[in-house]
Structures
1.
Amino acid sequence: MCLYPTEHADLAMPIEERYRGYLDELVGHRHLVPTGVPGVYGRGTEFERVIERFDALVTRHGAALAPEVMRFPPIFNRKHYAKIDHIRNFPDLMGSVHTFTGGDREHREMLGRFERDEDWSRDLSASEVMMTPAICYPLYPSATGTLPPGGRRVDLQGYAFRHEPSVDPARMQIFRMHEFVRLGTPDEALAHRDHWITLGQEIFHSVGLPTQPVVANDPFFGRGGKVQKAIQREQNLKYEFVVPICSEEKPTAIGSSNYHLDHFGAAFGIRTHDGAVAHSACVGFGLERVALALFRTHGLETRAWPREVRDVLGLG
Ligand code: ZN
């Protein structure tokens, strides 16, 4: 089933205007609730219902793996953050949680700056947590040690944070992902990634989203980032499922399937049953982006969506 392309009269407009136009429509239909910060929204009833139904669809497909179900909060251990390469590759996207740790005198000084409308953020100190940049990151440090025979399969869902304020409704600063992670041998991890490239496509196509798998092009930071980018593309480790939301030329990734080699196994001392460094792979579905793609493709009112799509999602 392929219901795209839907005709959008605004495709000739500059991209920023298209983003703004779609955002206005979403807010007008109470799908998104603005907060005054670009990329941070509340969600309305129908938007949330679509996310819940798609999430349930993904859970049903993932159940065939008989995964462990685990949930982590959207903040994670700063010491664990220091063991991954995020600070080197994506410093501009990080979120660090700070708090006040001074005494009475420092409090008075901070309040003075606060009341004079000066910058009081320098009075804060780093807490023991960072915002979680990817929802599978907290899993790996919890898996330190030896995996059971056959490795592990884990179902994760939660919020990730990326500081990239944008008028593009699909570029949220905080959003939910549903992931299935595989920890095991290189063959097991690679098979998981490839299985989900096929299954992910089937899931998206079943709800009328004509995604294509493409080799990922992550926004690695700065001069060192050019090398990382080349390595990622050369090794074809990560595939993204892309679909046009506001732009045919710049389609949006609404999911990805990623083979991490032994990156997390080596960083966190995870070993396979026979003592080798574990490899890992994860597939992730970007829940808000999927909802945005669905509303863009099928229209802003779910009751007008094609019957097949409503049935697959169980929208009634
Ligand atoms: Zn992941």
Note: The first strand starts at residue 32 and ends at 34.
2.
Amino acid sequence: MKNDLIAAIATAPGQAGIAVVRISGDNALDVLQKIFSHSGDYETHKLYYGTIKNEGNIIDYAMVAFMKAPHTYTGDDTIEVFCHGGYAVSRSVLSTVLEKGCRMAKAGEFTKRAFLNGRLDLSQAEAVSELIAANAQRAADVALNALSGRIKKQIDNMREKLLDFLAKIEVCIDYPEDDVEQQTAKMLLPEIQIMINDLETLLQTAHRGRIYKEGLTVAIAGRPNVGKSSLLNAIMGESRAIVTTTPGTTRDTLEAHVDINGLEVMLIDTAGIRKSDETIEKMGIERAENVIARADIVLLVIDNNTGITQEDIKVFQKLADKPYIVVINKMDIGSPIQQKSLDVQLGAGETIYVSALNHTNIVALENMIFDFVGENKLSNTQAVLSNVRHIEAVKNANMSLDEALTTLNNAMPIDLAVTDIKNAWHSLGEVTGDTVDEDIVERIFSKFCVGK
Ligand code: GDP
């Protein structure tokens, strides 16, 4: 039943200008002919205007497109009905096509077909759902990078080379003279080293890729009354809010998602960190510490008017090894804190003076937060990893090749390297989906939305 007829509403529920009902599978055109007023032939990839009918009753005036396999999203014959948006109309178009022989598509089933029909590899298919999930431009950029097939291309090239290595070793095994083996090992060593370097370069993109995809978590920490909440509000006022403030996952935190230069940033306003014997206070402190642990970067807020206090130093000590920016708030009152005392008491972190009250230097602070992620444009040619599954697979491939390198370096029998090279080939195939189990594929697509 690989190509049976499936249908779903591909647009989000709710009122809108149009809704799209998508149908895919063998003989999809039969379904269209049963419900649509156009009586002649259908040219592929052309729009037709007419009425959608069910047993003579008009359901809607709509545009439809018939797309003939294999040049379609799924690789099967596909129809898209562009009807009026809104719950009632799109539901009746859907129920009409279900009556005419389609079944309801499962979550992600259109994209799964695209994958099974070889229209997309698994890294591209996953990128489709990541592109839909993207809240900010940077997340869309990394998804588009994968969707363009850059990861697939690089991985396919490497797997091709690995097969070539295996073929060379095979020759040695067939002709087991010592010198052939030694020569082959000598020839393979630099090639494997180059591939390890390439994998490492690819892995280096993962840090930025993950932050682009998932957003940057920024904890706002400091003792009470330094202006943490005011700072959160000021940043929200200077940037586009993705989600307005919500109570944090923990009792004493407040979270806000903002878009800073196209990067999604989750700001967490922590409860004041201070020593206390009261249980509730203590719980608050522990939670604030947890938030700091979760954050990619911490804004350590200091009150310019009071200067650095013992309590500030205690908060600073909670930061451990976290990257941080010292934000000296209330620059509108008091005289600036001496740079020397900042360096001595709060380490050599970056420093900025702001006034949350007057919105002074808030944009500059945002740029500092953004710069933390590194260069802001993705290269047009480099594949960027952002998906945990891909990152793990590439790491495993790298480890296997390291082992192969050790074998060859230590003049061990060359066939011992075969397993490692095969493992690397297998791990890389997990990224593109060539070597993944059916249940993993199922799991990946089950997280998609219906209609995609
Ligand atoms: P939190 O306890 O750290 O969250 O601090 P709040 O944001 O509640 O601020 C504590 C007090 O400092 C409030 O009265 C704010 O109005 C005041 N405040 C915050 N930021 C500034 C600032 O930049 N300048 C001045 N003068 N007052 C500020």
Note: The CA atoms of residues 56 and 435 lie 50 Å apart.
